[in-house]
Design brief:
This protein is an alpha+beta fold. The strands form 3 sheets. It has a 5-stranded antiparallel sheet, with no helix packed on it. The chain has 2 domains: 5-85, Arc Repressor Mutant, subunit A (Orthogonal Bundle), CATH 1.10.10; 98-229, Sandwich (Immunoglobulin-like). Helix 2 crosses helix 5 (70-85). It has helices spanning 5-8, 12-23, 31-38, 42-54, 70-85, and strands at 28-30, 58-60, 65-68, 98-110, 112-114, 119-125, 138-147, 149-150, 155-161, 166-174, 179-189, 196-209, 217-229. Strand 2 (58-60) and strand 3 form a beta hairpin. The longest helix has 16 residues, at 70-85.
């Protein structure tokens, strides 16, 4: 039996991710489960997952979780049939030496939002500690998306992150709901177009009220992982 052409076009690591879903009979899996189960580096995971999402095999489902699409399920079934007919030898792949460091992601928002009124949300990174220093600038993208608010499309900010604090400001407008969810994902870009590492993120639920109140702010934080690649 020959592997279908559309699966031949995928890198071997992407096929391993599809196998992971099939072997474990999982319709949905968190990024950490996939990375550990397949044995991918954080850097390679970002590259592979982007390819599978772009090609329509996986869909993002909540924070750092991925769901098999109908096309993905078909691919899992085709791959299982191929593996059964012609068992494949797993190739050990050498990964470049990499060191991961933590950086503190911070989101500053009003304590409450007013329905229909724009508000500013500040998102960025604290100054690193001595054990969080980068050798070179990290190419980082912050993606902010909303549930129950506008804009409907995600907003992005691009950073050449160095060893100092950095932030950007987003404008959000809550709808006529009791709560607005703000989701923030951090991606580290590599030298090639497909090199995207999922570094982490967080989400925040904010109360929405019908009329204005005191404009107090609150800060939320989470550690994300950035990668330093060694030659």
């Amino acid at each position: 039996m020959e592997l279908p052409f559309h699966l031949k076009a995928l890198p071997p690591e992407a096929l391993d991710v599809l196998r992971f879903f099939g072997i474990n009979d999982l319709p949905i899996a968190h990024a950490d489960e996939i990375t550990e189960g397949v044995g991918l580096s954080e850097r390679l995971f970002g590259k592979v997952i982007r390819r599978l999402v772009t090609k329509g095999y996986l869909q993002m489902d909540g924070d750092m979780a991925y769901r098999l699409s109908d096309q993905g399920q078909d691919a899992v079934d085709e791959l299982a049939a191929y593996d059964e007919a012609a068992p494949s030898m797993k190739v050990e792949r050498n990964q470049p030496a990499a060191e991961q460091i933590q950086r503190r992601l911070v989101v500053v928002t009003p304590q409450t939002l007013v329905a229909g009124q724009p508000a500013e949300v500040h998102v960025g990174f604290n100054t690193p500690t001595s054990n969080q220093l980068l050798d070179d600038a990290a190419d980082v993208v912050i993606r902010l998306s909303l549930i129950n608010g506008e804009p409907a499309r995600p907003q992005e900010a691009h950073f050449q992150l160095k060893n100092h604090a950095a932030h950007d400001t987003f404008t959000v407008t809550p709808g006529l709901y009791k709560c607005l969810r703000i989701r923030v994902h951090v991606f580290q870009l590599g030298p090639n177009p497909d090199d995207i590492n999922v570094a982490g993120g967080l989400y925040v639920d904010l109360d929405v009220v019908p009329t204005a109140t005191a404009a107090n702010t609150t800060a939320y934080g989470a550690d994300v992982l950035l990668t330093k690649i060694s030659d």
